[in-house]
Every structure is written in C-alpha cells, then in structure tokens.
Amino acid sequence: MRRLIFTLVAGASLLAAGAACAQALEASPKSAPAMGPLRPDQARFRAIYKELVETNTELSDGNCTAAAARMQAHLVEAGYPASDLHPFAAPDHSKEGGLVAVLPGSDPHAKPLLLLAHIDVVEARRADWVRDPFTLVEEDGYFYARGSSDDKSMAATWVDTMMRLREQHVHLKRTIKMALTCGEETEGAFNGAGWLATHERALVDAEFALNEGGGGQLDAAGHQVLLSVEAAEKTPQDYDLVVTNPGGHSSRPVKPNAIYQLSAGLLKVGDYQFPIMFDDANRAYFNAMAKIKGGEQGAAMTALMANPQDAHAYAIVSADPSSNAILHTTCVATKLEAGHATNALPQRAMANVNCRIFPGVTTEAVRQTLAQVVGDPAITVSMPNHRGPLAKPLPLTPQVMGPIQQVSAKYYPGVPVVPTLLAGATDGVFMGDVGIPTYGVGGTFYDPDLGHIHGLNERIGVKTLYDGRDFLWDLVNLYGMQE
C-alpha cells in the first residue's frame, strides 16, 4: 500500500548505531491502550497473525507462496474442502503465489462479497531496525514487525473470519470469497490481484470487495477522530527524467553538463504545484474535517472548497502533509543516478520522479506537464512502467455505507464515518478495472504517524487490532445477509 523510499547505508559494524538511530525515529505516543486477557478465539487469531507476520514475504528473499500455503492449512483445519481452496502462482514467479478461498452462500441470486488483502511486504533490513522485523514483538501496547499493519493485519483477519464462518456454520446469503495476493508493494513484480482480475475473473467475481485503505484516525493525544472509508484513490506512476551528452575529461569542463541540467529541471519540478482539485471523495473528507477541526483550520478547509485559488486557505490546509496529499496530483523526486567516473564529465544523469495522480487525470497528461515544467528539450521525460489501470471513483451506496455506519456506531459511538480519497495506492484498482468496486474499510485506528508503515519499526496497536478484527467480523456478517 503506501510507498516510501529509504536509502540507509549500514554494515555489520554499524548495527548498534543503526539501532540507536531507529529507536530515535520511534514517534510518540510510546504506549497504546492496554489489552486485557485474551479470549480463546483471540489467542488463536494471534497465533495465525504471528505465523503470517513471521513468514518473510519480501520480494528479494521472501516467499508469498509459502505464506499462502500456511494460511490454506488453517482453512483446511477449519473444514474447507479442496474444491473451495484455489492456490495460484505463475510458473515464472513461483514464490509470488497467493490463495483464493470460497465459502458458498445460500442464495444463488445474491452476488458474492470479496475479501482482498496482500501478503507481501516492503523490504526491511535487520541492521536498521530496533527489533527483528520478522519476529512479532508485543511491547508497550503495540505489535512491532514488518507487515504487522500493512497488510498482514487484514490478511490474518480475513483468514480468521473465513475459518470462523465455516466452523460456526454461519448461513449467509452471499457467497464470501477471500483473495490473498502478492506483488502489491513492489513496482514491476508479479501482481496477484491483477493476475486474478485478468486470468481468473470468474473465480473472484463479486458485487464489491473489502480491502485495505480505510480505518480509524487518532489525534496526537490518542483520541478517535474519524473512521475513514476509501471512496477513491490516486494513481501512482513513476517518470524517468534523463539527460545524456558526450561527456569528456573532467579537466576540460564544458557548459552542457548532464548533472547541472538535470538538477535545474528537478528544482523546477520541486517548485511546481499541480492544480487543486475536488471530487466527491476528498470534498466529503474536508467537509467532515472542517467540522471536526473547527477554528482556523476548519475555516480554511471550507474556504478552499469554495475557492481552490485561495492561497491563504491553501497555505493553512497544506501545512498538514496528509491533507495536502489529497488536494491535487503530487510529484516528488525519489532517486538519482549520474556519472560514471570521478574524473569524467557525466554522460548521463537520471532521476526518478514518483507521482500520485488525482482521479480523472491521465498519466500521459502528467508526463506532458512535467516536460513543460522542466522546459528543457535536453531532459527527456518518460514512463518506465505502468503499475496498473487508472483508479476509478467508487459509488457510496446505502448498501455499502449502511453496514459500515451500523457497525461503527456499535464499536465507536460518536465517531463520524467519513469517505476519503486515499493518497496511496492499493490493489483495489485491478478489481475496480474489471467491474468489482473495492472499498478500503477497517476498524483499526492509527496514530498520526500511521504506525511507521513502510518505515522502520512498523507497528500497530494491540487492542485496536483485536477491536478491528471484531469490527470486520460483524461487517462481513451484515454484508453476507444482504440479498
């Protein structure tokens, strides 16, 4: 889900220094609400969650296929026949497989519900972490590990939900399907959700799907602010900005220097602001947040929706990076490569610019804008790859929103349910592209730092994870009884 790039240089001799640095990066609060003794069902869920988290699923040296097989074994123990379990892996990506499980409903006319989660994780180097990233550590009210939140918390919850539905002989009208997939976190990797959407569309067919991308927001004091439902998401796209020239000996410098030319173009990109835009998703979010925040911030949000050209209001709203991220397309340089020798003029300089594109804007339109902003024909702007289709806005029907509001009122009375535009990216775009609207929904609440997702010492609150599990259990049951 939300991609961040960290470039850290460390060796075995720097382990202690790296750990100290990582410890310093841990944001407050230092502890989360305490969790009482576990019920037997919670203890079993914890064991499944621990097993999944501690199965390394990095692209470089992990194995999603093994993780999916371990989850399949739990479903077999719960009574699922082989005919309802569908492991999959492309022949040339044998370690990037996944699993689809099906629990048939009682009403053949009720369209299925799909539960989607990815089981791959962002790379994590032990030398940089305070704790082993692939050992689940419970400390100060948090679970720490790579994937403890993104997205193995949801994947383990879906496995647990499917097991309980089968074991308890819950008779739902809808068929419930679960898809655990790999490849969400890495550009260019085999994407299981995309493969299912294009190669096994009938297997995952559903009226709509539930996925990561939603959940609760806490303020700095730990108070529950809102529960978000992803109603749209931005499209990620990388662009290569490249300058080439003949180079030469460094003792004979000339004006056309690839590094200088590229640097000048990147400064222009850094100064450029894409136009502010509003759609149903971010307008609903800012309408709700204006009331919650009140004061100067709330007034600025209201003013900006009335007039997107209001520079004073924008300055106040955009001071919060999370708010700024959903106001418009954003582009930021994330990698640089230049030169081939210390005593030679650079023959090539390249930068990667990562953009998160507002719904309705095409990747080609952004490429053209970057080229215009750079304003130098010596700098080529190209798209090295395409992650997937453009994200589509989601219809927020009473059928979808009603159960979320009902369950939220039970667990989190008084906390508003707010549609939002997700600044990051999920596998929901692949399902949406083949006609399966995919909503980001969750009952887990996150600190303002989002639990260091993609960063060092990723974590999730212990109590809120168990609460979120109960939330999603109730939600799936409500959806399952819809006709």
Indicate the CATH topology of the largest domain: Aminopeptidase
| Major sheet summary line | 6 strands, mixed
Report the β-strand fraction as a percent range: 15-25%
Coarse morphology: globular
The mean pLDDT is 92
What is Rg?
Answer: 23 Å
Q: Considering DSSP H and I runs of 4 or more, what fraction of the residues is helical? A: 25-40%
The count of domains is 2
Distance between the termini: 31 Å
Structural class: alpha/beta
The CATH architecture of the largest domain comes to 3-Layer(aba) Sandwich
- Identify the quaternary structure here: single chain
Summary tags:
34% helix, 483 residues, alpha/beta, 2 domains, 19 strands, 20% strand, Alpha-Beta Plaits, Aminopeptidase, 4-stranded mixed sheet
Written overview of the protein:
It is a single chain. Helix 4 crosses helix 14 (462-480) and helix 7 (280-293) packs antiparallel against helix 8. 34% of the residues lie in helices and 20% in strands. It has helices spanning 15-24, 40-53, 64-77, 152-167, 192-199, 258-271, 280-293, 295-306, 311-317, 321-325, 363-374, 398-411, 428-433, 462-480, and strands at residues 85-88, 98-103, 113-118, 137-139, 142-144, 176-181, 208-211, 215-218, 224-233, 235-244, 248-249, 330-338, 344-345, 348-357, 380-382, 417-422, 438-440, 445-446, 459-461. It is α/β, with parallel strands linked by helices. It folds into 2 domains: 12-232 and 393-480, Aminopeptidase, CATH 3.40.630.10; 235-382, 2-Layer Sandwich (Alpha-Beta Plaits). The protein is built from 14 helices and 19 strands. A 6-stranded mixed β-sheet has the order 1-2-6-3-7-17. It has a 4-stranded mixed β-sheet with strand order 16-9-8-18. It has a 4-stranded antiparallel β-sheet with strand order 12-14-10-15, with helices on one face. A hairpin with a 2-residue loop joins strand 4 (137-139) and strand 5 (142-144). The chain starts with 14 loop residues before the first helix and ends with a helix. Mean pLDDT is 92; it is low at 1-25.
